[in-house]
TrEMBL record:
Its EC number is 5.1.3.14. It comes from the Bacteria. Belongs to the UDP-N-acetylglucosamine 2-epimerase family. It holds the Pfam family Epimerase_2. Residues 28-367 form the UDP-N-acetylglucosamine 2-epimerase domain. One of its GO terms (molecular function) is UDP-N-acetylglucosamine 2-epimerase activity. SUPFAM superfamilies: UDP-Glycosyltransferase/glycogen phosphorylase. This is UDP-N-acetylglucosamine 2-epimerase (non-hydrolyzing). Keywords: Isomerase.
Amino acid sequence: MKKRKIAIVFGTRPEAIKMAPVILEFKKRQEIFETLVLVTAQHREMLDQVLSVFNIEPDYDLNIMKENQSLSDITANVLKGIEDIYKKERPDMVLVHGDTTTSFSAALAAYYQRIPIGHVEAGLRTYDHDNPFPEEGNRQLIDNLAELYFVPTETSKLNLINENKNESNIIVTGNTVIDAIHYTKQSQVKHSVLDLMDSKPKQKWLLLTMHRRENYGKPMSDVFEAVVKLTKRFSDIEFIMPVHLNPLVQIVAKEVLGDNSRIHLINPLEVDVFHQVINKSHLVLTDSGGMQEEAPALNKPVLVLRNKTERPEGLEAGTLKLIGTDSRTVYSSVSQLLTDAKEYNRMTEAINPYGDGTASEQIINKLTKYFEIED
Ligand code: UD1
Ligand code: UDP
Protein backbone atom coordinates (compact mmCIF):
# COMPACT_ATOMS: atom_id res chain seq x y z
CA MET A 1 0.00 0.00 0.00
CA LYS A 2 1.29 3.42 -0.95
CA LYS A 3 1.71 5.63 2.09
CA ARG A 4 0.16 9.09 1.83
CA LYS A 5 2.49 11.98 2.51
CA ILE A 6 1.00 14.80 4.61
CA ALA A 7 2.85 18.08 5.17
CA ILE A 8 1.88 19.85 8.40
CA VAL A 9 2.86 23.50 8.27
CA PHE A 10 2.89 26.03 11.12
CA GLY A 11 4.95 28.91 12.44
CA THR A 12 3.56 30.54 15.58
CA ARG A 13 2.96 29.44 19.17
CA PRO A 14 -0.82 28.89 18.98
CA GLU A 15 -0.63 26.93 15.71
CA ALA A 16 2.09 24.74 17.20
CA ILE A 17 0.04 24.04 20.35
CA LYS A 18 -2.97 23.06 18.28
CA MET A 19 -1.12 21.08 15.58
CA ALA A 20 1.11 19.19 18.04
CA PRO A 21 -1.62 16.70 19.04
CA VAL A 22 -2.34 16.07 15.34
CA ILE A 23 1.34 15.28 14.74
CA LEU A 24 1.41 12.92 17.74
CA GLU A 25 -1.68 11.16 16.38
CA PHE A 26 -0.08 10.78 12.94
CA LYS A 27 2.87 9.08 14.64
CA LYS A 28 0.48 6.31 15.71
CA ARG A 29 -0.51 5.76 12.04
CA GLN A 30 2.93 5.56 10.47
CA GLU A 31 1.98 2.48 8.46
CA ILE A 32 -0.42 4.55 6.36
CA PHE A 33 0.83 8.13 6.62
CA GLU A 34 4.22 9.69 6.19
CA THR A 35 4.30 13.12 7.83
CA LEU A 36 6.49 16.09 7.14
CA VAL A 37 6.63 18.74 9.82
CA LEU A 38 7.44 22.06 8.23
CA VAL A 39 7.88 25.10 10.43
CA THR A 40 8.26 28.62 9.12
CA ALA A 41 9.40 29.98 12.51
CA GLN A 42 7.28 33.10 12.06
CA HIS A 43 7.86 32.92 15.83
CA ARG A 44 11.24 31.62 16.98
CA GLU A 45 11.53 31.31 20.78
CA MET A 46 7.79 30.94 21.36
CA LEU A 47 7.57 28.22 18.71
CA ASP A 48 10.59 26.35 20.05
CA GLN A 49 9.05 26.28 23.54
CA VAL A 50 6.07 24.35 22.16
CA LEU A 51 8.16 21.97 20.05
CA SER A 52 10.12 21.10 23.16
CA VAL A 53 7.02 20.45 25.35
CA PHE A 54 5.61 18.05 22.73
CA ASN A 55 9.01 16.59 21.71
CA ILE A 56 8.53 17.46 18.04
CA GLU A 57 11.47 17.81 15.69
CA PRO A 58 10.64 19.58 12.44
CA ASP A 59 11.77 18.12 9.12
CA TYR A 60 12.14 21.60 7.64
CA ASP A 61 12.62 24.96 9.32
CA LEU A 62 12.43 28.14 7.21
CA ASN A 63 13.62 30.25 10.15
CA ILE A 64 12.04 33.44 8.76
CA MET A 65 11.51 35.49 11.94
CA LYS A 66 12.89 39.02 12.01
CA GLU A 67 12.37 41.64 14.68
CA ASN A 68 9.26 43.73 13.90
CA GLN A 69 8.65 41.79 10.70
CA SER A 70 5.90 43.13 8.44
CA LEU A 71 2.98 41.07 7.19
CA SER A 72 4.42 41.29 3.67
CA ASP A 73 7.79 39.99 4.92
CA ILE A 74 6.10 36.95 6.43
CA THR A 75 3.86 36.32 3.42
CA ALA A 76 6.65 36.64 0.85
CA ASN A 77 9.27 34.67 2.80
CA VAL A 78 6.91 31.78 3.53
CA LEU A 79 5.53 31.70 -0.01
CA LYS A 80 8.93 31.59 -1.64
CA GLY A 81 10.66 29.45 1.00
CA ILE A 82 8.03 26.77 0.96
CA GLU A 83 7.76 26.46 -2.81
CA ASP A 84 10.97 24.47 -3.17
CA ILE A 85 10.03 22.13 -0.33
CA TYR A 86 6.62 21.36 -1.84
CA LYS A 87 8.26 20.80 -5.24
CA LYS A 88 10.82 18.42 -3.79
CA GLU A 89 8.51 16.51 -1.45
CA ARG A 90 5.24 16.57 -3.42
CA PRO A 91 2.96 15.92 -0.41
CA ASP A 92 -0.50 14.46 -1.07
CA MET A 93 -2.00 17.10 1.20
CA VAL A 94 -0.92 20.15 3.16
CA LEU A 95 -2.49 20.79 6.57
CA VAL A 96 -2.53 24.35 7.88
CA HIS A 97 -4.08 25.78 11.00
CA GLY A 98 -6.33 28.72 11.81
CA ASP A 99 -5.64 32.25 10.68
CA THR A 100 -2.01 33.28 10.84
CA THR A 101 -0.04 34.70 7.95
CA THR A 102 2.10 31.55 7.93
CA SER A 103 -1.07 29.50 7.42
CA PHE A 104 -2.40 31.71 4.65
CA SER A 105 0.90 31.83 2.80
CA ALA A 106 1.54 28.09 3.17
CA ALA A 107 -1.96 27.45 1.81
CA LEU A 108 -1.41 29.81 -1.11
CA ALA A 109 1.88 28.08 -1.97
CA ALA A 110 0.09 24.70 -1.88
CA TYR A 111 -2.67 26.01 -4.12
CA TYR A 112 -0.08 27.24 -6.65
CA GLN A 113 1.42 23.75 -6.67
CA ARG A 114 -2.05 22.19 -6.95
CA ILE A 115 -1.69 20.34 -3.66
CA PRO A 116 -4.97 19.88 -1.75
CA ILE A 117 -5.25 21.78 1.52
CA GLY A 118 -6.81 20.60 4.77
CA HIS A 119 -7.71 23.49 7.06
CA VAL A 120 -7.67 22.70 10.78
CA GLU A 121 -9.82 25.09 12.86
CA ALA A 122 -11.68 26.24 9.74
CA GLY A 123 -14.86 28.29 9.64
CA LEU A 124 -14.31 30.79 12.47
CA ARG A 125 -15.69 34.20 11.54
CA THR A 126 -16.39 37.71 12.76
CA TYR A 127 -17.09 38.92 9.18
CA ASP A 128 -15.20 42.10 10.10
CA HIS A 129 -11.89 42.39 8.29
CA ASP A 130 -10.57 44.81 10.92
CA ASN A 131 -11.33 42.60 13.94
CA PRO A 132 -9.16 40.68 14.33
CA PHE A 133 -6.68 42.01 11.76
CA PRO A 134 -5.28 40.35 9.69
CA GLU A 135 -6.64 37.04 11.00
CA GLU A 136 -10.18 37.44 9.67
CA GLY A 137 -8.85 38.02 6.15
CA ASN A 138 -6.37 35.17 6.46
CA ARG A 139 -8.92 32.56 7.50
CA GLN A 140 -11.44 33.55 4.84
CA LEU A 141 -8.71 33.35 2.20
CA ILE A 142 -7.56 29.92 3.44
CA ASP A 143 -11.15 28.60 3.42
CA ASN A 144 -11.49 29.76 -0.18
CA LEU A 145 -8.51 27.61 -1.15
CA ALA A 146 -9.11 24.55 1.07
CA GLU A 147 -10.41 21.13 0.09
CA LEU A 148 -11.17 19.73 3.58
CA TYR A 149 -12.47 21.74 6.53
CA PHE A 150 -11.87 20.48 10.06
CA VAL A 151 -14.16 22.71 12.09
CA PRO A 152 -14.33 22.90 15.88
CA THR A 153 -18.11 23.39 16.28
CA GLU A 154 -21.47 23.30 14.49
CA THR A 155 -21.38 27.13 14.45
CA SER A 156 -18.23 27.15 12.33
CA LYS A 157 -19.73 24.46 10.07
CA LEU A 158 -22.78 26.66 9.51
CA ASN A 159 -20.55 29.62 8.57
CA LEU A 160 -18.96 27.53 5.83
CA ILE A 161 -22.28 26.12 4.59
CA ASN A 162 -23.58 29.69 4.34
CA GLU A 163 -20.53 30.44 2.19
CA ASN A 164 -21.50 27.59 -0.16
CA LYS A 165 -18.64 25.29 0.82
CA ASN A 166 -19.19 21.61 0.04
CA GLU A 167 -20.90 20.19 3.14
CA SER A 168 -19.48 16.69 2.71
CA ASN A 169 -15.98 18.13 3.09
CA ILE A 170 -16.76 19.84 6.42
CA ILE A 171 -16.04 17.70 9.47
CA VAL A 172 -16.91 18.80 13.01
CA THR A 173 -14.10 17.53 15.23
CA GLY A 174 -13.94 19.79 18.29
CA ASN A 175 -10.84 21.89 18.79
CA THR A 176 -7.44 20.23 18.99
CA VAL A 177 -6.59 22.61 21.86
CA ILE A 178 -8.63 20.27 24.08
CA ASP A 179 -6.40 17.39 22.93
CA ALA A 180 -3.41 19.59 23.85
CA ILE A 181 -4.83 20.25 27.33
CA HIS A 182 -5.22 16.49 27.87
CA TYR A 183 -1.53 16.16 26.99
CA THR A 184 -0.22 18.98 29.18
CA LYS A 185 -2.26 17.72 32.17
CA GLN A 186 0.01 14.69 32.32
CA SER A 187 3.18 16.72 32.70
CA GLN A 188 4.69 17.13 36.18
CA VAL A 189 5.91 20.69 35.79
CA LYS A 190 7.86 22.83 38.19
CA HIS A 191 8.35 26.56 37.69
CA SER A 192 9.16 29.57 39.86
CA VAL A 193 5.89 31.26 38.87
CA LEU A 194 3.93 28.29 40.23
CA ASP A 195 5.95 28.51 43.47
CA LEU A 196 5.19 32.24 43.66
CA MET A 197 1.45 31.64 43.28
CA ASP A 198 1.54 28.85 45.87
CA SER A 199 3.49 31.02 48.30
CA LYS A 200 0.58 33.49 48.60
CA PRO A 201 -2.56 31.37 48.77
CA LYS A 202 -4.73 34.20 50.11
CA GLN A 203 -4.10 36.40 47.10
CA LYS A 204 -6.31 36.28 44.01
CA TRP A 205 -4.14 35.86 40.94
CA LEU A 206 -5.27 37.52 37.74
CA LEU A 207 -3.70 36.37 34.50
CA LEU A 208 -3.17 38.96 31.77
CA THR A 209 -2.01 38.56 28.15
CA MET A 210 -2.23 40.98 25.21
CA HIS A 211 -0.71 40.95 21.77
CA ARG A 212 -3.22 41.68 18.99
CA ARG A 213 -2.28 44.10 16.23
CA GLU A 214 -5.53 46.08 16.53
CA ASN A 215 -4.67 46.69 20.21
CA TYR A 216 -1.16 48.12 19.64
CA GLY A 217 -0.67 51.56 21.18
CA LYS A 218 -3.53 53.30 23.01
CA PRO A 219 -5.92 50.33 23.50
CA MET A 220 -3.08 48.40 25.13
CA SER A 221 -1.92 51.26 27.37
CA ASP A 222 -5.56 51.99 28.35
CA VAL A 223 -5.97 48.39 29.54
CA PHE A 224 -2.66 48.50 31.41
CA GLU A 225 -3.63 51.74 33.15
CA ALA A 226 -6.84 50.07 34.37
CA VAL A 227 -4.74 47.19 35.69
CA VAL A 228 -2.59 49.57 37.73
CA LYS A 229 -5.71 51.24 39.17
CA LEU A 230 -7.16 47.85 40.10
CA THR A 231 -4.09 47.02 42.20
CA LYS A 232 -4.65 50.28 44.07
CA ARG A 233 -8.31 49.47 44.83
CA PHE A 234 -7.89 45.77 45.74
CA SER A 235 -5.04 44.88 48.08
CA ASP A 236 -5.65 41.12 47.71
CA ILE A 237 -4.99 40.83 43.96
CA GLU A 238 -1.81 40.24 41.98
CA PHE A 239 -1.39 40.14 38.22
CA ILE A 240 0.76 37.75 36.24
CA MET A 241 1.55 38.78 32.71
CA PRO A 242 3.72 36.58 30.50
CA VAL A 243 4.69 39.28 28.04
CA HIS A 244 4.59 38.42 24.32
CA LEU A 245 8.05 38.86 22.77
CA ASN A 246 6.80 41.44 20.29
CA PRO A 247 8.82 44.62 21.09
CA LEU A 248 5.66 46.71 20.62
CA VAL A 249 4.08 44.83 23.53
CA GLN A 250 7.24 44.63 25.64
CA ILE A 251 7.83 48.40 25.59
CA VAL A 252 4.30 49.41 26.66
CA ALA A 253 4.06 46.64 29.28
CA LYS A 254 7.34 47.66 30.91
CA GLU A 255 6.50 51.35 30.76
CA VAL A 256 3.03 51.15 32.32
CA LEU A 257 3.19 47.98 34.43
CA GLY A 258 6.89 47.61 35.15
CA ASP A 259 7.08 49.39 38.47
CA ASN A 260 4.45 47.65 40.61
CA SER A 261 5.23 44.91 43.12
CA ARG A 262 1.87 43.21 42.57
CA ILE A 263 2.19 43.08 38.77
CA HIS A 264 4.57 40.32 37.72
CA LEU A 265 5.86 40.69 34.17
CA ILE A 266 7.46 37.43 33.10
CA ASN A 267 8.73 35.75 29.95
CA PRO A 268 6.36 33.64 27.84
CA LEU A 269 5.78 30.32 29.59
CA GLU A 270 5.95 26.78 28.25
CA VAL A 271 2.38 25.73 27.55
CA ASP A 272 2.29 23.01 30.23
CA VAL A 273 3.31 25.55 32.88
CA PHE A 274 0.93 28.10 31.40
CA HIS A 275 -2.04 25.74 31.69
CA GLN A 276 -1.16 25.28 35.38
CA VAL A 277 -1.05 29.04 35.80
CA ILE A 278 -4.55 29.32 34.30
CA ASN A 279 -5.71 26.63 36.74
CA LYS A 280 -4.33 28.58 39.69
CA SER A 281 -5.72 31.93 38.50
CA HIS A 282 -8.91 33.56 39.69
CA LEU A 283 -9.72 35.02 36.30
CA VAL A 284 -8.17 35.79 32.93
CA LEU A 285 -7.90 39.07 31.01
CA THR A 286 -6.81 38.56 27.43
CA ASP A 287 -7.13 39.40 23.74
CA SER A 288 -5.88 35.93 22.79
CA GLY A 289 -7.89 33.64 20.54
CA GLY A 290 -6.79 30.30 21.98
CA MET A 291 -7.31 31.31 25.59
CA GLN A 292 -10.99 31.90 24.84
CA GLU A 293 -11.18 28.18 24.09
CA GLU A 294 -9.04 27.00 26.98
CA ALA A 295 -11.08 28.96 29.54
CA PRO A 296 -14.33 27.00 29.25
CA ALA A 297 -12.32 23.78 29.33
CA LEU A 298 -10.58 24.92 32.53
CA ASN A 299 -13.67 26.63 34.05
CA LYS A 300 -12.15 30.09 34.35
CA PRO A 301 -13.93 33.37 33.64
CA VAL A 302 -12.34 35.33 30.80
CA LEU A 303 -12.74 39.03 30.16
CA VAL A 304 -11.95 39.43 26.47
CA LEU A 305 -10.04 42.60 25.58
CA ARG A 306 -11.59 42.92 22.13
CA ASN A 307 -14.63 44.40 20.45
CA LYS A 308 -15.55 41.26 18.49
CA THR A 309 -14.89 37.56 18.80
CA GLU A 310 -14.95 34.70 16.32
CA ARG A 311 -15.58 32.37 19.27
CA PRO A 312 -19.28 32.94 20.12
CA GLU A 313 -19.48 29.51 21.78
CA GLY A 314 -17.69 30.79 24.89
CA LEU A 315 -20.04 33.79 25.09
CA GLU A 316 -23.04 31.46 24.84
CA ALA A 317 -21.57 29.08 27.41
CA GLY A 318 -21.21 32.08 29.72
CA THR A 319 -17.49 31.80 30.42
CA LEU A 320 -16.46 34.79 28.26
CA LYS A 321 -17.41 38.45 28.40
CA LEU A 322 -16.41 40.82 25.61
CA ILE A 323 -15.31 44.01 27.35
CA GLY A 324 -13.15 45.81 24.76
CA THR A 325 -10.20 47.97 25.82
CA ASP A 326 -11.73 51.12 27.32
CA SER A 327 -9.95 51.80 30.61
CA ARG A 328 -13.10 52.46 32.65
CA THR A 329 -14.90 49.38 31.30
CA VAL A 330 -11.93 47.16 32.07
CA TYR A 331 -11.73 48.59 35.59
CA SER A 332 -15.45 48.15 36.26
CA SER A 333 -15.71 44.67 34.69
CA VAL A 334 -12.82 43.31 36.76
CA SER A 335 -14.12 45.06 39.87
CA GLN A 336 -17.51 43.44 39.36
CA LEU A 337 -16.06 39.95 39.13
CA LEU A 338 -13.99 40.59 42.26
CA THR A 339 -16.96 41.74 44.30
CA ASP A 340 -19.97 39.85 42.89
CA ALA A 341 -19.55 36.20 43.90
CA LYS A 342 -22.76 35.13 42.19
CA GLU A 343 -21.67 36.51 38.83
CA TYR A 344 -18.18 35.06 39.28
CA ASN A 345 -19.56 31.60 40.07
CA ARG A 346 -21.96 31.75 37.15
CA MET A 347 -19.02 32.29 34.79
CA THR A 348 -17.09 29.32 36.17
CA GLU A 349 -19.91 26.89 35.52
CA ALA A 350 -19.62 26.88 31.74
CA ILE A 351 -19.81 23.72 29.68
CA ASN A 352 -16.87 23.21 27.34
CA PRO A 353 -18.20 23.51 23.77
CA TYR A 354 -14.92 22.52 22.10
CA GLY A 355 -15.06 18.75 22.13
CA ASP A 356 -13.77 15.79 24.08
CA GLY A 357 -10.08 15.76 23.18
CA THR A 358 -10.43 13.43 20.19
CA ALA A 359 -10.24 16.07 17.45
CA SER A 360 -6.84 14.88 16.19
CA GLU A 361 -8.00 11.30 15.93
CA GLN A 362 -11.11 12.41 14.05
CA ILE A 363 -9.01 14.45 11.62
CA ILE A 364 -6.88 11.43 10.79
CA ASN A 365 -9.91 9.13 10.49
CA LYS A 366 -11.36 11.54 7.93
CA LEU A 367 -8.07 11.64 6.00
CA THR A 368 -8.05 7.83 5.94
CA LYS A 369 -11.49 7.88 4.34
CA TYR A 370 -10.59 10.76 2.02
CA PHE A 371 -7.64 8.85 0.61
CA GLU A 372 -9.69 5.60 0.63
CA ILE A 373 -7.08 3.85 2.72
CA GLU A 374 -8.12 0.52 4.28
CA ASP A 375 -7.31 0.93 7.97
C1 UD1 B 1 1.11 36.20 15.31
C2 UD1 B 1 -0.13 35.99 14.44
C3 UD1 B 1 -1.38 36.08 15.30
C4 UD1 B 1 -1.29 35.18 16.50
C5 UD1 B 1 -0.01 35.44 17.26
C6 UD1 B 1 0.12 34.47 18.38
C7 UD1 B 1 -0.11 36.82 12.13
C8 UD1 B 1 -0.31 37.99 11.25
N1 UD1 B 1 -0.23 37.04 13.44
O1 UD1 B 1 1.06 37.54 15.77
O2 UD1 B 1 -2.51 35.73 14.51
O3 UD1 B 1 -2.41 35.42 17.32
O4 UD1 B 1 1.10 35.28 16.37
O5 UD1 B 1 1.10 34.87 19.31
O6 UD1 B 1 0.15 35.74 11.65
N2 UD1 B 1 8.75 37.75 18.42
C9 UD1 B 1 9.94 37.29 18.93
N3 UD1 B 1 10.03 35.95 19.27
C10 UD1 B 1 9.00 35.09 19.14
C11 UD1 B 1 7.79 35.59 18.62
C12 UD1 B 1 7.68 36.91 18.26
O7 UD1 B 1 10.90 38.02 19.06
O8 UD1 B 1 9.16 33.91 19.47
C13 UD1 B 1 8.63 39.19 18.03
C14 UD1 B 1 9.37 39.55 16.75
O9 UD1 B 1 9.94 40.81 16.90
C15 UD1 B 1 8.22 39.63 15.73
C16 UD1 B 1 7.09 40.17 16.58
O10 UD1 B 1 7.25 39.51 17.83
O11 UD1 B 1 8.53 40.50 14.67
C17 UD1 B 1 5.70 39.94 16.04
O12 UD1 B 1 5.53 38.60 15.63
P1 UD1 B 1 4.42 38.26 14.48
O13 UD1 B 1 4.40 36.79 14.26
O14 UD1 B 1 4.65 39.12 13.30
O15 UD1 B 1 3.09 38.77 15.10
P2 UD1 B 1 2.30 38.28 16.40
O16 UD1 B 1 1.72 39.49 17.03
O17 UD1 B 1 3.13 37.37 17.21
N1 UDP C 1 0.39 30.40 25.95
C1 UDP C 1 1.59 29.81 26.38
N2 UDP C 1 2.46 30.56 27.15
C2 UDP C 1 2.20 31.85 27.48
C3 UDP C 1 1.01 32.45 27.01
C4 UDP C 1 0.13 31.70 26.24
O1 UDP C 1 1.84 28.65 26.11
O2 UDP C 1 3.03 32.46 28.17
C5 UDP C 1 -0.52 29.59 25.12
C6 UDP C 1 -1.98 29.55 25.56
O3 UDP C 1 -2.18 28.47 26.44
C7 UDP C 1 -2.72 29.37 24.26
C8 UDP C 1 -1.82 30.00 23.23
O4 UDP C 1 -0.55 30.19 23.85
O5 UDP C 1 -2.86 28.00 23.93
C9 UDP C 1 -2.38 31.32 22.79
O6 UDP C 1 -1.42 31.98 22.05
P1 UDP C 1 -1.50 33.51 21.68
O7 UDP C 1 -2.32 34.22 22.68
O8 UDP C 1 -0.10 33.96 21.46
O9 UDP C 1 -2.20 33.48 20.26
P2 UDP C 1 -3.72 33.44 19.78
O10 UDP C 1 -4.38 32.28 20.42
O11 UDP C 1 -4.31 34.76 20.14
O12 UDP C 1 -3.61 33.29 18.31
